[in-house]
Amino acid sequence: MVERMDTAEREEIAALLARAAEGDGRQAVSEQGRLALRSGREDVAHLTSRDEHGALVGYAQIDAEWSAELVVDPARRREGHGRALLRRTLNSGARRLWAHGGHPAATHLAAEFRLELVRELRQLRRTGPAPAVPALPDGVTLRTFEPGRDEEAWLKVNAAAFAHHPEQGSWTRRDLEEREAESWFDPAGFFLAERDGELVGFHWTKAEGGLGEVYVVGVSPTEQGSGLGKALTAVGLRHLGEARGLATVLLYVDADNPAALRVYERAGFTVHEVDLMFGVPS
């Protein structure tokens, strides 16, 4: 396990991730994981796998919740490196493992280690004109995010909106500021809904790689059922389609959230691919 990495090793791992993303057509490590790699977060463990010549052939990351992601260089697959790296990852304490895209090889490896499917995260996409924007609930106004002013209010509403979803609801100021520092961050696409000057909802959009993304939509529990979430979703889709010129928009939603799935399906989204999480049996 790597306790500390220098800049050269982080760049070597980043290059491996880039080769895998190009070969697989998707990222092997999540955005959160890639941010943790670049920033050197202390609550994340890193494992590297090298051949007899010292060449990097695999990388794994274990976060503070003992969830892991791993990748093997596309040119070095089918040599047993993935199996060996997964064994080391589990022996290092990982309790869950992501298989992004639900790749059959990853699913087979999880079965070999007797891991059980514990979560299914669906990527949905829609292509076409944005839907009409319905009226906001009475008394609600809309503006865009102001860096340096809105962070704490956003974190409060995000935590309340996602109290049932610890992965999103537990975001810290550092999590938010790391994303504000990313090249794709655009406050003009980060919409805030307020009632009497108090933040009650938001739609944070993302544009990267020729695709738009419903990055996260959240509504305060006090506004649940008011239609605010539907209006915010439409506002963001129209921004991505008209202001950013992006015809295709993606989002992620858990398979065990049928209410959200119905909302997005009615907005024209369909399943594009699925990320699977496997867990160690209890």
List strands and helices in order, with pairings.
Elements: H1 7-24, H2 31-39, E1 45-50, E2 56-62, E3 67-72, H3 81-91, E4 96-99, H4 104-112, E5 116-127, E6 140-144, H5 151-161, H6 166-169, H7 173-180, E7 190-195, E8 198-208, E9 211-219, H8 228-243, E10 248-254, H9 258-266, E11 270-279
Parallel strand pairs: 3-4, 9-10
Antiparallel strand pairs: 1-2, 2-3, 4-11, 5-10, 5-11, 6-7, 7-8, 8-9
The helix-strand sequence is: HHEEEHEHEEHHHEEEHEHE
* Integer average pLDDT: 94
Distance between the termini: 25 Å
> What is the CATH topology assignment of the largest domain?
Aminopeptidase
Helix content: 25-40%
Helix/strand/pairing class, anyone?
alpha+beta
Shape: elongated
Major sheet size, sense and barrel closure: 11 strands, mixed
The DSSP helix count reads 9
CATH class of the largest domain: Alpha Beta
Question: Got a strand count?
Answer: 11
Question: Main sheet: which strands, in order across?
Answer: 1-2-3-4-11-5-10-9-8-7-6
Based on the model shown, name its key terms.
single chain, 282 residues, alpha+beta, Aminopeptidase, 2 domains, eleven-stranded mixed sheet, Mycothiol acetyltransferase, EC 2.3.1.189, MshD_Acetyltransferase, transferase
What does this structure look like?
- The chain is an alpha+beta fold.
- The protein folds into two domains: 7-94, Gcn5-related N-acetyltransferase (GNAT) (Aminopeptidase); 129-246, Aminopeptidase.
- It is built from nine helices and eleven strands.
- The chain has an eleven-stranded mixed beta sheet, sandwiched between helices.
- Its EC number is 2.3.1.189.
- It catalyses: 1D-myo-inositol 2-(L-cysteinylamino)-2-deoxy-alpha-D-glucopyranoside + acetyl-CoA = mycothiol + CoA + H(+).
- Monomer.
- This is Mycothiol acetyltransferase.
